[in-house]
Amino acid sequence: MDVAVRELSYSQAIQEAMAIAMEADERVILMGEDIGVYGGAFQVTGDLVERFGPDRVMDTPISELGGAGVAVGAAVTGLRPIFEFQFSDFATLGMEQIVNQAAKMRFMLGGEVSVPVVMRFPAGSGTGAAAQHSQSLEAWLAHVPGLKVIQPATPHDVKGMLLAAVADPDPVMIFEHKLLYKMKGPVPEGHYTVPIGKAEVRREGRDLTIVATSIMVHKALEAAETLAGEGIDIEVIDLRTIRPIDRETVIASVKKTSRLLCVYEAVKTLGIGAEISAMIAESEAFDYLDAPIVRLGGAETPIPYNPELEKAAVPQVPGIIAAARDLAKGVR
Amino acid sequence: MATAKKAAEQSNLPFAYTRYSHEQLKDVLRKMYLIRRFEEGAEDSYMRGLIHGTMHLSIGQEASAMGICMPLTDEDQITSTHRGHGHSIAKGADVKKMFAEFFGKTTGYCKGRGGSMHIADVSKGNLGANGIVAGGIPIAVGAALSAKRLGNGKVVVSFFGDGANNEGAFHESLNMASIWKLPVIFVCENNGYGMSTSTARSTAVANIADRAAAYSMPGVIVDGNNFSEVAEASHAAIERARAGEGPTLIESKTYRYRGHSKSDRNRYRTKEEIEDWMTNRDPIALFETELKEFGVIDDHGIEAIREDVAREIAAGIEYAKEGPMPEISDLARFVYTEEVA
Predict the structure, then answer these.
(1) Overall domain count for chain A
(2) pLDDT in tens, chain A (332 residues)
(3) Among A16, A33, A84, A133, which one carries the catalytic annotation?
(4) Which chain A residues have a beta carbon less than 8 Å from that of B118?
């Protein structure tokens, strides 16, 4: 049976996934700040409140800590909440419940409970929202055993991974780059899942592997197309999940290309690039490396307001092209 | 004479004596002893090096735990605190599985992964003690949200201490519970000190229950060392919650005899203060006096309960000693529901 595939935006794909999950299971509820009639700060929930009512599309007070905790408590006792943090930066306010409670409750109780909560985090820079509304904090949460952390990069994946997250018995944190919300792409109708913990090779190549996350996948693909014109053949891996990491896909690729460039928006130091680099250094792929591993990450600064400074604070296509070219040509 | 007095005061007996049978009241006394002897047994095992880590004892607060839990069913749920042994037993936990947990054994409630500070018994609705002050309060509100949405008639009790009332989670949780009229009862066991800091120094209101007004819910103050008074407040709050009228804040004023934890040098309160509570306001002694006064039990009956509890505690410790330790190879179990590479 053919499944119709349409063009949807990333935010429409999220909304469709939530609607499908809510249609299929009465236990699925949405919680968050201004997700009801307002439709969410980024219009991701949109008009869902009209379809499912305010009891299932629940506006919370501006209470990130308490709200996250209510979602955790509801998940433990039979509901399947999808909790939206209005901005991922506000995870800092809910951290106690995410890190100490959601992530550890199953373990502390010796497996007597599961915590099937989904938390959504609009993340990243590029909107002129300055330092407290533009961060990429996914590595903070990926450092915590008990959580799963995903960064879908396409409308297709965000729908399938959100549906996988709702079905997952454990807490899943979804980091959605805000600049992706309007990006369109093919999305199949109906229910499907994209597995958590599996990376995707977006572009095959022989000369160099770029491991990228979220919006950087698209920038890496653009860089790869440009460099193809120079005869440099780049493999681009969309990591998609940062906990648990798909080791096999990354290691196999590096063994093939012998060169690795990590590209991510979060602050470079102690980020996902460090983890990928160490993973390769510890693996059999290390012996295949023909050059030092290179990381391109965010600057060691808060995200600035000025648009030119803001762009300079995170990797951009020209920088990726330059780094990849140097790495492929052995300049480094 | 006790019987004559009982007859004379039949019309204005304390709540518990009109509500509960003699058998139930004797069982309450038994459980209060069970809590105290359990904690003494845990403390003794700790001193002898059989239990590691730390623990927070609620000796002196037994009437509060029992009074609140008495009207709850096994389906009703609680969230508890780092000082949660009494809540656990009051909610129906088996002391042998609690001891086994403290000893780090796989036969414990949390299979040795949680210990004292995360003691739980999900089968009896205890969603767990919590190492984070106020950490359990939003979780209780979430459980109450489930109860309301799923229409299962459950109510949820969130136990916390006076220290928690100054956490942001307290404010956020009580506000949400009130606006959504959720079936949850907030029980602040005010034992006078958040670790070393007295409520007088930490809290801007005279009574924590006064804060209920800010959330448009009833705020009730009870003598936490008086079982009947606590049970009466609990009944009323549970009735209100089950009727869909929303949450209640109960402040149960009580006292802990032991220090905050095993590191406490008791420098923030006087010996006289502690002795006064132990001598004049001990919840078990007060309850025994009442039970005898109203003809529920005599000294023989009390002695029989004490002996029975002592046997159960001794058997519990033996059970804990005999249980197997977790396999080191099982370290990563229970991090996720399905094994993750």
Answers:
(1) 2
(2) 578 999 999 999 999 999 999 999 999 999 999 999 999 999 999 999 999 999 999 999 999 999 999 999 999 999 999 999 999 999 999 999 999 999 999 999 999 999 999 999 999 999 999 999 999 999 999 999 999 999 999 999 999 999 999 999 999 999 999 999 999 999 999 999 999 999 999 999 999 999 999 999 999 999 999 999 999 999 999 999 999 999 999 999 999 999 999 999 999 999 999 999 999 999 999 999 999 999 999 999 999 999 999 999 999 999 999 999 999 998 65
(3) A133
(4) 108-109
Range of the domain at A320: 200-329
* Residues A179 and A204 both lie in one domain: no
The verdict on A19 and A149 lying in the same domain is yes
CATH number at residue A162: 3.40.50.970
Q: Which of B143, B173, B336 sits opposite A76 (nearest CB)?
A: B143
Query: Cα–Cα distances in Å, from B185 out to B176, B211, B220, B254?
Result: 13, 14, 11, 18
Interface TM-score (ipTM) > 0.85: yes
Cβ separation of B139 and A112 shorter than 8 Å?
no
A195 found inside a domain: no
Q: Regarding the domain delimited by B2-320, which CATH topology (the fold level of the hierarchy) does it fall under?
A: Rossmann fold (3.40.50)
Least CA distance to A245: which residue of chain B? B341
- Do A155 and A220 lie in one domain? The reply is no
Q: With an 8 Å Cβ cutoff, are A112 and B120 in contact?
A: yes
C-beta of residue B251 within 8 angstroms of C-beta of residue B219: yes
Residues in chain A: 332
CB pairs under 8 A between A and B: 155
